[in-house]
Design a protein that fits this description.
about 55 residues, mainly alpha, 2 helices, flat
């Protein structure tokens, strides 16, 4: 059974920073710059979480 404890350390802080940046970005008015920044932040989020997922069989 997977552990339910939250990870700590540099990885978790990076995840928290990227998540907070995404949340702040959503409050900004729509613009091409916001879209570009959102795409970059989502790519960072994916990289920080890639070890959390196992492909389905």
């Amino acid at each position: 059974m997977p552990s339910r404890s939250r990870p700590h350390g540099p990885l978790q802080r990076a995840r928290t920073r990227v998540n907070a940046a995404i949340r702040r970005l959503i409050d900004e008015p729509p613009s091409p710059q916001r879209t570009d920044r959102y795409e970059r932040l989502l790519a960072q989020w994916r990289e920080l979480h890639e070890d959390d997922y196992t492909p389905a069989a």
